Amino acid sequence: MSERDTTPPVEEHGTDPHRHHRPCRPADAREAVEHAVTACAGLHDAATCDAGALSDAVLVASELTTNAILHGGGVTDFRVDVVGPRVRPGVRLSVCDRSHDLPVAVPPTDDRGRRRLGGRGWPIVCRLSQEVRVADLPSGGKCITVVVPLS
């Protein structure tokens, strides 16, 4: 993808003293996605995004951030940008954490047939994303990068 097909990334490293350096909560991640998509919508020739697609992107950001907090030792980096604004637009999210463990889907019931709480986030992320990549980081931990379609 060429540089002109990508909007500048929205990172939580701004100069606003009220902003965190990275989303510490799922709500921060949701806000960052909404901000990135809104900023892209104001660009010339940018593709429009329907409410359902934006909702999917916000849900994926929330799930990835929650999983990093619950299972990965916390969020170590977060990036969001809108890619391909003219053709097949999408939101690219990268969430890094401290764990090398790969995400897994957990069956909804345990060995005794009792319903489990949780375990549905990763399948949701995979279902709503058109691309999913998990990479080990040289400094330790992993980075999950996904692209959620906006059309």
Care to describe what's here?
With 151 residues, the chain is α+β, with helices and mostly antiparallel strands. It has helices at residues 26-41, 51-71, 121-128; strands spanning 10-11, 75-83, 90-97, 131-136, 142-149. A five-stranded antiparallel beta sheet has the order 1-2-3-5-4, with helices on one face. α1 (26-41) runs antiparallel to α2 (51-71) and α2 (51-71) packs antiparallel against α3. The radius of gyration is 16 Å and the shape is globular. It starts with 9 loop residues before the first strand and ends with a strand. Residues 1-21 have low confidence and may be disordered.
Question: Tags for this entry?
Answer:
30% helix; disordered N terminus; 3 helices; alpha+beta; globular; 151 residues; 22% strand; single chain
How many strands? 5
**Count of discrete alpha- or pi-helical segments spanning 4 or more residues:** 3
Main sheet specs: 5 strands, antiparallel
Which percent band covers the strand fraction? Answer: 15-25%
Topology pattern, helix = H, strand = E:
EHHEEHEE
Mean pLDDT: 81
Question: Between the first and last Cα atoms, what is the distance in angstroms?
Answer: 18 Å
Residue share in helix: 25-40%
Low-confidence stretches: 1-21
Q: How would the global form be characterised? A: globular
Structural class, from helix and strand content?
A: alpha+beta
Q: Which strand order spans the largest sheet, edge to edge or round the barrel?
A: 1-2-3-5-4
Give the radius of gyration: 16 Å
